[in-house]
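Today's session is about reading a structure prediction critically. Students often jump straight to the picture, but the first step is always the sequence itself: look for stretches that repeat, for charged clusters, for runs of hydrophobic residues. Only then move on to the predicted structure, which in these notes is written as discrete structure tokens rather than atom positions. Here is the chain we will use throughout the hour.
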Amino acid sequence: MYTDHGWIMKRAEITPDSTALIDVHTGQRWSYRELAVRTAGFVETFHSAGLRKGERVAVLSHNRIDLFAILFACAGRGLIYVPMNWRLSEGELRYIVDDSGPSLLLHDDEHAGRAAGLGVPAIPLDSVPSASVYPLSEKVACRPDDPWMMIYTGGTTGRPKGVVLTFQSVNWNALNTIVSWSLSARDRTLNYMPLFHTGGLNALSLPILMAGGTVVIGRKFDPEEAIRALNEYQTTISLFVPTMHQSMLDTDLFWETDFPTVDVFLSGGAPCPQTVYDAYRRKGERFKEGYGMTEAGPNNFVIDPDTAMKKRGAVGKSMQFNEVRIVDSKGRICRPGEVGELHLRGRHLFSHYWNNEEATREALKDGWFSTGDLATLDEDGDCFIVGRKKEMIISGGENIYPQEVEQCLIGHDGVKEIAVIGIPDRKWGERVVAFITAHPANVPKTEELLRHCAQTLGSYKIPKDFFFIQELPKTDIGKIDKKKLAKMAKELKKEEMQHPGQSG
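Below is the predicted structure for this chain, in token form.
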């Protein structure tokens, strides 16, 4: 019988022999029947442990296909799945454990020691046996608004927040994605996004499993391994963050390889440089950007790849079952071309932040979620994300969007990676500074970059400082970490004041 929380078992009845999951690292392949049997094994384990509806089950593990069985088993028992970022420090992990209060912690072998020190009953993933049969003997009644998973945000603006996603949140995101992006059982996706992140779980993995397709899971991203896997597993649609795309484009293998089964390459998690668009256009591959957040889907927009290539940076129109609006500082709807804050509405939204009523009230008002992102619509109604509201630079009273400056600088042949931030300035309020990773054979001089910027940017938008570093710091999913860059800028400016004339 179908339920909001038991659809994977229904899928196993419909297409039991179809391949559900493949693990690039181990070579394991699970049919939908095997996924259901493995899920039932975890259900029995949770039942034997006496876990009751609403209790939390934490997981500390590298990417592996077993994690989906745990996720679906939590759904079967009405438990809340809490995937933890294994890259965090012990103190950061302990904060999440203290905040979420899990009753059980599942872990892989590599994290056994860390799991043992967190003060939660812990069991190894590999110690849980499969069930002999998968129809569940005891069903737990769940409502659409019951929590299914809790994903902690990156905490770039303070302590991480537990984003509570209900069955409705997750399932409507999946259904909306299937309908809006025309997914079907023929689709196969390669996923290197971490499975403690909404991009790894909800962007494509769960929608494709709901549709009866195949999800191929990679562990640690390697560009050449990913390129080979795209073809070996006959993938059709895959999501990578911009830094992953750039890593693949930097290999000879990418340019030597055809991708006969790939319908489209997706980019998400951060604004995509124009150079990535150029590379996919030269290669003759279809490519487009998406936009999402843990609190909303993460999928919110749909755009045809041909339109995306013509309107670089556009994420398109709202999907079939959600709404978007852009409002100014006074709450008025913006006209085309005006920049305002992006708001989202739909059944895919999260229900609340765990143990944080104040943050929930600030984010959710009258059914709309305030994203904190700045956006604009063109005359056709296609949306462009301009940047984070908190990252907007105000210099001399002028609003400056880092993304615009970054897109300009990445167009210089010597710039490999770029990040632009604002730092405090006594005269201007904030000053624009750029961090650059240069191509070793073509390191640009500051004067060249200034001339390059002057061709397309107003003088107030041009960076006052250029800092050349070997590698830009990244977050756990490969996004450039601007919080760390702000700290670096502060230190570099301090050094410059002590030793004038030595900056880039």
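Discussion point for the tutorial: Residues 500-504 have pLDDT under 50 and may be disordered.
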